[in-house]
Structure formats: structure tokens, C-alpha cells
Design a protein that fits this description.
This protein is mainly α. The protein contains seven helices and two strands. Helix 1 crosses helix 2. The protein is globular. The two termini are 20 Å apart. 27% of the residues are buried.
Length: 143
Amino acid sequence: MDVTELANRLRQGERRALARAITLVESGRADHRAAAGDLLSKLAEGGAREALRIGLSGTPGVGKSSFIEAFGLMLTGQGLKVAVLAVDPSSARSGGSILGDKTRMEGLARDPCAFIRPSPSQTELGGVARRTREAVVLCEAAG
């Protein structure tokens, strides 16, 4: 799929296109970085959709995933769309990440009006991954 087709499918709200686009912007490959830049430029031409952004953080086990699932299901129940960009801390030693948020939000993960994307922080500090801003832009383009 070329960048123009991906942008069109993304604007139509296709979840698979959104997942593919986020993978593209998170990739470190040079050809993917170039394609991601082209995609973001194409999406900027269409203007941004109105969206509410909410950031949530907390210590492990405090109930973040439970809250997000309950709140997300309430919103989708009102006919709204929800995107969850869950950033998991990566181990400084191994570079690995659990990425278990999606399994803890089982009901929301099955909701057709919700999109959940876990991403490793890749040892970035501050609670966001390196490409979170671009992922937010893609989610907003998808509606």
C-alpha cells in the first residue's frame, strides 16, 4: 500500500490503516522514516479533526487500565471513538517492555469504536514514547 492510499484509508477511519501508520512512524528504518514524513505531510493537508487528549499516569497497580477501560467504554457507549496510546516503560537493561495494557482492557479492546496501541517507551523518560506525538496526529486523522 502506498502512502496516498494509506492516508486515504486512515482518513476513512480504518483501524488496520491506523495500526499500519503507527508502525510506520515508530520504525527506525530510513525508508519507513521517509514514508512516515510523507504520510504526515499528506494528512496535514486535510486539516485536523477535533479531539480531546487526556494524559494519565500513576504508579503500577493503581488502576490506570481499569479506569481507562471504564471511561473508554462509557465514551464509546455514547457513540464516540476512543484511541488509547498506552506507553509501557522499557527495561534499561534488556530494552524489553511488557506491553500488557491491551490485555488488561479486554472489553475496550473488542469495542469497534476503540483503538488501543501499546508502545514501549524505549527508555525515554517522561511517560511518552519517542513517536507519541506522531501517533496522536494519526489517531486524530482517523477520527
